[in-house]
Design the sequence.
């Protein structure tokens, strides 16, 4: 039993490190960029059953010369039981509103 707990501890530590590395990657350059206020922005809402979220994106030229969308900001929220009963279109709008306020 002690060996199992040791492996669980190692795996949990590894998962934590991976999540920490992933969080750093998506919240810093070159992934997350500062907005260019004179350029168009793209809002991409998402609304699965229990959460809503949105990504504000903008086109940037990468080092290889290609135009790619990069996130400017992220927004997410857990839905209340009442909000979970909304149809998908209403949840999409519900995801867009806080992102626009952000």
Sequence:
């Amino acid at each position: 039993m002690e060996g199992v707990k040791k492996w669980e501890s190692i795996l949990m530590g590894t998962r934590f490190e991976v999540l920490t590395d992933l969080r750093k990657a998506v919240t810093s350059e070159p992934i997350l960029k500062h907005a260019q206020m004179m350029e168009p922005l793209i809002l991409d809402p998402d609304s699965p059953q229990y959460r809503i979220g949105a990504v504000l994106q903008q086109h940037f030229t990468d080092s290889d010369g290609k135009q790619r969308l990069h996130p400017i900001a992220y927004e997410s929220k857990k839905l209340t039981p009442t909000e979970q009963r909304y149809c998908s279109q209403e949840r999409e709008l519900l995801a867009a509103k806080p992102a626009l306020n952000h």
